[in-house]
Amino acid sequence: MTHEAVLPGRPNGGFQALRMDGVSRRFGSTTALDRLDLTIEGGEFLALLGPSGCGKSTALNCLAGLLPLTGGSIWLDDERIDGLPPEKRGFGMVFQNYALFPHLTVRKNVGFGLAIRGVPKPEMTQRVDEALALVELADQAHKLPGQLSGGQQQRVAIARAVVIRPRLVLMDEPLSNLDAKLRLQMRTEIRRLHQSLGLTTVYVTHDQEEALALADRIVVLRGGLVEQIGTPEQVYTYPLNTYVAGFMGYRNLLELPVAAHEGDEVVLAEPGLRLTGRAQERFTGTSAVAAIRPDDFTVGPRQSNTVRVSVEVAEFHGREMAVEGITESGRVIHFRVSDRVRPGEKVELGVPPDRVLVFGSGVPDGLT
């Protein structure tokens, strides 16, 4: 789908900012969301990013009104809305499993929200036609959901969400059930619709590539707490800690003894491995963690930061190979090369010191 979207009316009741003030949600003795403070600007695309159980879907469901708060408040400009039922908030929602009515046609699925709002039939017909054209499904309007592909069903769900001209669109892992090609296609479409319709969107995902590609800002969550909020560039390039680094693609998280530390320059060393990097936080311990992306390694020796590995596993990824190697001391190193390498082959790698981020904190569980 490449044509420009036709704008089916402005979103209903646009706002300046939506504010979550100290929002908490507990399930018995378990705290799923812990005093979340977050402001979402009107027109913004915000991604909530993190692994399963981090609190991102809980935050979305609290916004939607599907879960009551156990602490805090939610404000739409000067209006407190956390006491309103879901249907009174004027939000559209797109679910992971599409949540379409299997016995209703595409047209009736898209028009369902308008029907329960009592929109007159002529206006409803026009708005449904516009929404179906927007997602290029006008020729599928007569079909049942079971007759559509997964990508088409998700487009129906998106059309149903935007046809009500919502103040806010909430998306809960909407692409996770699609294959890789469809995910890329739908990712582009979601961003296009967000921009052309002037929507405000909150998007839940565990996929850092999706978050980077779609969002204006990313909120990284862990255990119900915010670890970092920033633009995709900020979170990708300047993670605040090893948890965010590991989640944003710094696959090499190497905890090593500190050999020297002056200013922001840190030298980490053990027998057979010596790395110079840049400190990202103040620390006083005798060990630290070097965070390095696989694609920041280059093949061949450098004046500093030469790493010698023996290839263990090499995966063909088209124009490059994703490789797992091991140092003499048993450290696992992940790197990428453009030339073919084979298990058992010895490779000498280098990495610029400014691409080695050094953190004082240890490696979080699940990221080693």
UniProtKB/TrEMBL annotation:
Protein keywords: ATP-binding, Nucleotide-binding, Transport
Short name of any one Pfam family annotated for the protein: ABC_tran
The transmembrane segments are: none
MF term (GO), any: ATP binding
Using the record's annotation, list all stretches that form the ABC transporter domain: 18-248
- Sorted alphabetically, which PANTHER family does this protein's record hold? MALTODEXTRIN IMPORT ATP-BINDING PROTEIN MSMX, OSMOPROTECTIVE COMPOUNDS UPTAKE ATP-BINDING PROTEIN GGTA
Q: What is this protein called?
A: ABC transporter ATP-binding protein
The species this protein was found in: Sphaerisporangium flaviroseum
